[in-house]
Amino acid sequence: MNNLAPTLQQLGWKPFFQQQVSLEELSNLTIGRVVEQHRDCIVVVSPKGQSSLRPMPFDKIVCVGDWVLFDDTLRICKRLERQSLFERKAPGSKVLTQIIAANIDTVMIVCSLNHDFSLNRIERYLATAREAMVEPVVILTKADLCEDTDIKRQQVQELDPMLMVYTINALDNHDIKLLESYCNSGSTLAFLGSSGVGKSTLVNALVGYESQQTGEIREEDSKGRHTTTHRALKVLPQGGILMDTPGMRELQLSSCEQGVNETFSEIAEFADKCRFSDCAHTSEPGCAIQQAIKGGLLSERRLHSYQKLMREQALNGASLAEKRSKDKAFGKLINSTQNASRQYKKGY
Ligand SMILES: Nc1nc2c(ncn2[C@@H]2O[C@H](COP(=O)(O)OP(=O)(O)OP(=O)(O)O)[C@@H](O)[C@H]2O)c(=O)[nH]1
Ligand SMILES: [Zn+2]
Question: Where is the CP-type G domain (predicted)?
Answer without folding.
Answer: 93-251
